[in-house]
Amino acid sequence: MTMSEPAAIPDANASAGILEGDLVKRARRGDLAAYDELVKRYQERIYATIYHMTGNHEDANDLAQEAFIKAFQALKSFKGGSSFYTWLYRIAINKTINFLKQRKNRHHFSLNDLDFNTEHNPDLVALISHKTPQRDAGLAELQKKLNEALFKLSEPHRMVVVLHDVQGVSHEEIAEAMNCNIGTVRSRLFYARQQLQGHLAEYMQP
Amino acid sequence: MNGNENNFETVKLLLKLKQHEEPPPGYFHNFSGQVISRIRAGEAGGAQGFAEQLQATAPWLVNFLRIFETKPGLIGAFATSLCLLLVVGLFIAERSDSVPKNFQSVAENTQPTLDSVASVTAAPMLAAADPASGIAVSTNPVLSLQPATTLFGQQNPLFQSASFAPVNH
After folding, report:
1. Helix (H, G, I), strand (E, B) or coil at A56
2. Chain B, nearest residue to A7 by Cα
C-alpha cells in the first residue's frame, strides 16, 4: 500500500457498493460488520493524516484506532450535517492535536520508510540532483529535514499543510474539519509554506 | 496569491515526498479487526468512560495531571517539595513536643536549693491546702491551679486536702 495518491473525497459508492449513509445507519444500530466496512474505507487516510502530524508510526497507530473507536461511541451524536468522513476527520484531528499538546517538546520520530516508487519519481529525482547543493543528499536525509521543518510549525499550521499539500484535501473540507473558515485555512497554508520554505532553504536554491 | 502559489512549487514538490512514506507491510491487514475487537471488548469504553467522568467531575485535576505529563521535570520538583514539607512538618512537631528552653530555664530557677529541700523534707510531704486561697499546694514544683472550691463554694470533688490519721498498731 502506498500513500502516494492524494486523498480525494471518498466515493459514496465504494467498491462494496454500499452507500456510506446505509453503513452509518447500520453502525448506529450497533452493527459492527457495517462499522468494520467504514473503518476499512477510511483507515488509510486517517492513519496517513495522523502519521504526518505525529511523525511516529506507533502513535499514529494508537491514535487512528482511538479515533475510530471514539467515532463509533459517538455515532449517535452524528447528525449527518456533514459527511461521515469529514466528521471522522474532525475527531481524528482533535485527538491528534490534543495528543501533540500533551507530547510537546518530546518528539520521537519513527518514520515510515519511503516506498520504492520514490526513487523513480522524476520530479523528486530532479529536485535531489539539481536543486540540492549537496548532490549526494539522499532521499532519507531529505525526508528527515522535511519532517524536522514540519515539526517547527505549530499544530494548526502543520495540520493545514499536511491535509492540503500532502493529503490533497480541499480548503473547504479542511475548514469544515478544523472548524474554521476558508480564509483562515488559506492564510495558515500560506504562512506554513512560507515557514517551510525558510527552513528548507538549502533545498530551494536554483 | 497566485504568484505566491507559484513561489511555493518547490515546497509542494518536497512535500510530495511525504506521500511516499509507507506504513509497515501488512499494517492495514488487521487494522479494522483490531478496532472492532477493541470496541467489542469495551476496552476503550471503560478507560475513556473513567477519563471522561474525571474530566466532568474534576477538570482541574485532569489539567493538573496533564501538566505533569507535558513537563516531567515538574514531577520531581513537586515530589521534592512534598518531601521537604513533610520533613519540616516533622521537625516542627518534634520541637513543639520537647520542653521549650525558656520553660526549662524557669524550671531550673525554681528548683529548690539544698537548704530548702531539707526544710521541705522536714515538713509534711504534702503541703496543706489552703481552702481560703483556693490554691492547692503540692510538692510538685509546678503549681497546681486546680481550685479547691468550685464557683459555688462547694468543695471540689477532685481536690482532697491531705489528712493524717494516726494508725495504731
Report:
1. strand
2. B19
CATH 3.40.120.10 fits A151-201, yes or no: no
**What is the helix, strand, coil percentage profile of chain A, to 5?**
65, 0, 30
Question: ipTM beyond 0.85?
Answer: no
* B48 contacts on A by Cβ (under 8 Å): 69-70, 73
Please tell me the number of Cα atoms within 13 Å of A126 on its side-chain side: 6
Mind listing the pLDDT tens digit for each residue in A174-199?
998 888 999 999 999 999 999 998 88
Provide the residue ranges of all domains of chain A, joining segments of one domain with +. 12-107, 151-201
Please, are residues A31 and A24 in contact by the beta-carbon 8 Å criterion? no
What is the fold of A12-107?
A: Rna Polymerase Sigma Factor; Chain: A (1.10.1740)
Please name the residue that has the C-alpha cell 491514535. Answer: A63
**Number of other residues whose CB lies within 10 A of the CB of residue B93:** 9
Please name the amino acid found at residue A87: W
